[in-house]
Amino acid sequence: PSPCTTPWGSAAPAAPACSLAEVMSEQLAKQLDEENAVFPALSDPAAELLPDEAPDTTSDLMLAQMLQMQFDREFDDQLRREEKKFNGDSKVSISFENYRMVHPYDDSDSSGDEVDWQDTRHDPYRADKPQTTPRKGFTGKGKNITTKHDEVTCGRKNTARMDNFAPEVHVGDGLGMDLKLSNQVFNSLKRHCYSEQRRSARLHEKKEHSTAEQAVDPRTRLLMYKMVNAGVLENINGCISTGKESVVFHADGGSLEEQPVPDEVVLKVFKTTLNEFKNRDRYIKDDYRFKDRFSKLNPRKIIRLWAEKEMHNLGRMKKAEIPCPEVVLLKKHILVMSFIGKDHVPAPKLKDAMLNSEDLKNAYYQVLHVMQQLYQECNLVHADLSEYNMLWHEGKVWLIDVSQSVEPTHPHGLEFLFRDCRNVSTFFQKRGVSEAMSTYDLFNAVTGLNIPVGAEDEAEFMAEIVALEKRNEDHIQKRGKKTFPVTSEDGGPPLEPDADD
Ligand code: ADP
Ligand code: MG
């Protein structure tokens, strides 16, 4: 490209021509200077808001907000035109003010002394004494001429304008004691107030972001915004949980390929910081479904495997009609699924649910049944089953958090199952469910195995489990069972083909 073209097209148009006489006019220069000094750069909203920070255009949201702001401003202009047309010459006029979008910052036509309309709207001094200086800039005649720059008038006006400072600023009763504030003092007060407001806004923003968006990196945020842009989600509301390995957000569902998405969904964002996943490698690299792919992948892609694994496991569970979230969409390391809960309130974890003894007993039998279904129908072991990963919703126990779930033939699958059984037995026994079986009996009931329970001796029981696992593995090796494409087996929504990043 030629040197004067920019990525946005050719060079900016030349500034509007003006006569040499105007350029040379000292009078004009001084006047302009004065006007600018009263309220610096009021005509530029961005400059007014953030004089010391360039506007941030790095994210889609920011761009969208900027476009929205532009749109709102145009809307307001249109409204103003309509208001004018509506009122015509009528003595009684109707104000459309409350319908305006852009509020305090729209003052593109304000000049030095014509304050922004936030000021004019509630100017008590003006309301009492409607002796505004007319457009020509002065009142009176001859010696008694009062210009708009008159010190006394201006001073009183400035005092009155302090009422428009943020409500937390205590301005006192300046009007009552006829205080006259010079432009200089007024301006520095105003600047101070604005910077205070900005500071508190920034603090606020930080607080909000720290609970929600700050939990994810910019890449992830972009992916999330893209889902909103594509209409899959209507809105992303806030964070339900931040764990070591994932962050869960609540969102309003939109539609996906003309299919409605559930009204309420969650986004489970698998954390792309790898540390926490390192010690979970064994859940995936020994899972023959993922084994071959695992060894070829870079760490970022391994994180995506976790999301993918959760999707496939949920798919199997849905088929067996186990109460669990329904998968909506998988995009890289973000899994969108139905929300278990109502009206933005997530269902409580079993550990937090207030259950009476009847409900508890009921819940126990549900868990037993679900564990059997999971093992026998889905060919899965949850591998992180506890009162933390079961939700109580509409009288049912819902299973969640199955990214680490494996098939029973996983080299450590039965050990994981044993641990699940221990968590479940311990929880229900502690809560006083007398029907709750021992860990060993539960294990046998889930697997249909009949490992003898020797005097509550865990070591013996474990030895038996490990021996079983070994035999399983030998068997698999003899048959030469290889990885196979999980997509065709498990169904579920198609994976997003994505370019390598
Ligand atoms: P982690 O691996 O971080 O434990 P989970 O899948 O267990 O991830 O989700 C963390 C928390 O988020 C859960 O304890 C639960 O409170 C909430 N949560 C997760 N999925 C859902 C869902 N589909 N509906 C409602 N709440 C959910
Ligand atoms: Mg969990």
Automatic annotation (TrEMBL):
One of its GO terms (cellular component) is cytoplasm. Gene3D superfamilies: Phosphorylase Kinase, domain 1, Transferase(Phosphotransferase) domain 1. InterPro entries: Kinase-like_dom_sf (IPR011009), RIO-type_Ser/Thr_kinase (IPR051272), RIO_dom (IPR018934), RIO_kinase (IPR000687), RIO_kinase_CS (IPR018935), Ser/Thr_kinase_Rio3 (IPR017406). PROSITE patterns: RIO1. Its cofactor is Mg(2+). It is an enzyme of class 2 (transferase). It is found in: Cytoplasm. Residues 118-129 have a biased composition (Basic and acidic residues). Residues 107-117 have a biased composition (Acidic residues). It catalyses: L-threonyl-[protein] + ATP = O-phospho-L-threonyl-[protein] + ADP + H(+); L-seryl-[protein] + ATP = O-phospho-L-seryl-[protein] + ADP + H(+). Residues 104-146, 477-501 are annotated as: Disordered. Its EC number is 2.7.11.1. Coiled coil: none annotated. It comes from the Eukaryota. One of its GO terms (molecular function) is protein serine kinase activity. Belongs to the protein kinase superfamily. RIO-type Ser/Thr kinase family. Interacts with CASP10. Interacts with IRF3; RIOK3 probably mediates the interaction of TBK1 with IRF3. Associated with 40S pre-ribosomal particles. This is Serine/threonine-protein kinase RIO3. It comes from Astatotilapia calliptera (Eastern happy). The gene is RIOK3.
